[in-house]
């Protein structure tokens, strides 16, 4: 065993004792600052290269520390590098990935011992879990979320000189054919379902008084504007400019993590900005949308509703997403659909309808408030491919 204080790499490697183990692999041991380190390889050359790489990093400032479990480091990283720097809803999702996919399965491994092979096996077992593994199979999006957490976490560990290499850096996610849970295309309403939606909504808001029928009008307007749920909940009447027939989208309602980096306390909060910078936008109100907004105003007059909130409930307080979804469930109860119709379905239907009617993707992206066109393209790729096929069928060059 060689104890190293001031490192002379060439001398260390030349004087190093490399032993052959019973499993035919080769092993060398060195001790740095009282911490023993073993290096293994199928050949002596492989062992020497590993030791050389290690010693070079020691000379560059890397300090060998006590072993840290992945669980401990991820919790440290989340609390110190992510909490308070990203949106509450984003942090909650990130913490959930840690709790359900990472902590129970590889959390007890020492971070310095985790290899690319460990991560590769770990990911593949979530893509296609072995029997009795206890793992719930994930779609490609779920696998991406795991890597999106681990990759920057390992990068931070490298900067803090806790590990040498990022075991996620060369990981390739499985293809769709390997996955048990296939990626679902975003669902949007068909023309027939849209007709039923309108018929049901008009029928209900005209026959249900008090605040209960109000949601059905809000849902029609939401469908016509393509708003995010948080955006429609945050709307106030002073966001509307009826002189120029436009509505200003500049805030959202979101679930905000309050005071607790372990997500044990949550509350709804108004955020005075949208999800992205591009989300702040002005939307033109067409005649159809204006008609339903006027209907909503008349509904409020008839039922003595006087609220600053565009989407309100009893006692003129702001409506919540859960209740709005319940109203949508009532509205769509008689609409035949293989998929559950959600509030986001209305937004996706808005975008899909525009694309199918020939509106350019740049315009659709701006209307939806996406940060960039790539996001729009990825979310509506199935619609774009559908339109490309239609276009090719129309081509008759000769």
From TrEMBL:
InterPro entries: DNA_brk_join_enz, Integrase-like_cat_sf, Integrase_catalytic, Integrase_recombinase_N, Integrase_SAM-like_N, Phage_Integrase. Keywords: Coiled coil, DNA integration, DNA recombination, DNA-binding. The lineage of its organism: Bacteria, Bacillati, Bacillota, Clostridia, Lachnospirales. Residues 314-341 form a coiled coil. PROSITE patterns: TYR_RECOMBINASE. One of its GO terms (molecular function) is DNA binding. It comes from Lachnospira eligens. Signal peptide: none annotated. Residues 188-393 form the Tyr recombinase domain. This is Site-specific integrase. Belongs to the 'phage' integrase family. Site-specific tyrosine recombinase, which acts by catalyzing the cutting and rejoining of the recombining DNA molecules. GO terms for biological process: DNA integration; DNA recombination.
